[in-house]
Design goal:
The chain is about 15% helix and about 35% strand. It has 1 helix and 7 strands. Strand 1 and strand 2 form a beta hairpin.
């Protein structure tokens, strides 16, 4: 019998791994499309968001932008209903999805532009001028 050195953090590692696996279960079960994958970056004047949304028609997408948040909702639909006896494997996700993306700066939502091409939604929003701080000094008593 071989001895395994005692590691006081092994149990904690197991708990963290099991917890992460538990919360990752829905994305594994539904093919990982509970929300679109995104890239968010900024240029000197704009915030840019690119979201992968393959197989969704433009009419089934909704885009909402406020001062510093982009919200994307939509629905994937089956082209036709498959009968269970004819299906060999079905892994694609069908249903509603939503993704809220916080932006690091305020933007001018009324000037936003969006383009959907080849399954990628590209959103460009001009940055707003930094607003004056609304904070005020509070006397501590």
């Amino acid at each position: 019998m071989s001895l395994i050195p005692w590691n006081p953090f092994r149990d904690m590692d197991n708990i963290f791994r099991d917890t992460n696996n538990f919360f990752d279960f829905p994305s594994k079960m539904f093919g990982g499309f509970s929300s679109p994958r995104v890239d968010v970056y900024q240029t000197e004047n704009d915030m840019i968001v690119k979201a992968e949304i393959p197989g969704v028609s433009k009419e089934d997408l909704n885009l909402y932008i406020d001062d510093n948040t982009v919200r994307l909702t939509g629905q994937t639909k089956r082209e036709k209903e498959l009968k269970d006896e004819n299906a060999y494997k079905t892994e694609r996700y069908y249903g509603s999805f939503s993704r809220t993306i916080p932006l690091p700066v305020e933007v001018k939502s009324e000037q936003a532009k969006a383009e959907y091409k080849d399954g990628v939604l590209s959103i460009t929003v001009p940055k707003a001028e930094p607003s004056k701080s609304r904070s005020r000094k509070i006397d501590i008593q």
